[in-house]
């Protein structure tokens, strides 16, 4: 396997476990808490944060540990990754995410693929996703220039917080959004809601790159 292949594999594996963490925790949380959504959200947020901390720590020196097309787009816009590599990253992230959801479904005795039925749309949802994604990409772009060693912990803490303080559930990730359209569990999203999510996530990611350039111009 070439270096490029290892990077692609790292992106797929990291994204896969992120989706196992969120989807699996959502299914288990609803079952174990007798449908208590607050407890389930707590389980999902902590599981997502833990998975991010672990796999970013493992793969940050391999691929950069993007696990997120919006983050990859940010690095592409900032000139830190080539278009060919960015495309390979995004494909691997989507494949990894879909695989993670399918594995979570299987592990809890659900059909391999389900159509998400939860409608998540409207101005409040889109603003939530834009805000969560903007903050995530800005956080990463700033820390890359200041202190890479704390990126795993910072991203994990940020995502846990955003699960609670945004109205959308803080997907903040197009690959996560696509994958979660394939489960009709607590973390699922209807297929019709996906385009709006992805649009605001990508726009917010690009805006975050511009903001990071302004804020970090004296640090480069």
What would you say this structure looks like, in words?
The mean pLDDT is 94. The chain has a single domain (3-215), classed as Glycerol uptake facilitator protein, CATH 1.20.1080. It has helices spanning 3-32, 37-59, 69-77, 83-107, 123-146, 151-165, 174-179, 194-215. The protein contains 8 helices and no strands. With 220 residues, the protein is mostly helical.
CATH evolutionary superfamily: Glycerol uptake facilitator protein
CATH topology name, in short, is Glycerol uptake facilitator protein
Percentage of residues in helical conformation: over 70%
**Topology order in helix (H) and strand (E) letters:** HHHHHHHH
Structural class: mainly alpha
Percent strand: under 5%
- How would you characterize the largest beta sheet? none
Shape: globular
How many distinct domains? Answer: 1
Tell me the name of the CATH class: Mainly Alpha
CATH level-two architecture: Up-down Bundle
What value does the average pLDDT take? 94
Number of helices: 8
Task: State the separation between the terminal residues, measured CA to CA.
Answer: 34 Å
Total count of strands: 0
Rg on CA atoms, Å: 16 Å
Quick summary of this structure?
The protein has 220 residues and is mainly alpha-helical. The chain has 8 helices and no strands. The longest helix has 30 residues, at 3-32.
């Amino acid at each position: 396997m070439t270096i490029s292949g290892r990077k692609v594999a790292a992106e797929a594996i990291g994204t896969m476990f992120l989706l196992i963490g969120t989807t699996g925790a959502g299914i288990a949380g609803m079952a174990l808490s007798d449908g208590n959504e607050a407890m389930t959200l707590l389980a999902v947020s902590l599981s997502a944060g833990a998975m991010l901390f672990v796999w970013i720590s493992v793969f940050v020196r391999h691929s950069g540990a993007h696990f997120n097309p919006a983050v990859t787009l940010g690095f592409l816009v900032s000139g830190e990754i080539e278009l060919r590599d960015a495309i390979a990253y995004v494909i691997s992230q989507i494949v990894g995410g879909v695989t993670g959801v399918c594995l979570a479904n299987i592990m809890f005795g659900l059909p391999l693929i389900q159509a998400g039925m939860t409608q998540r749309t409207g101005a409040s949802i889109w603003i939530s996703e834009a805000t969560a994604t903007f903050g995530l990409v800005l956080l990463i772009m700033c820390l890359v220039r200041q202190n890479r060693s704390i990126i795993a912990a910072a991203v994990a803490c940020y995502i846990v917080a955003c699960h609670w303080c945004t109205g959308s559930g803080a997907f903040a990730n197009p690959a996560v959004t696509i994958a979660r359209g394939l489960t009709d569990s607590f973390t699922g999203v209807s297929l019709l809601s996906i385009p709006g999510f992805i649009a605001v996530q990508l726009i917010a990611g690009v805006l975050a790159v511009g903001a990071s350039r302004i804020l970090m111009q004296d640090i480069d």
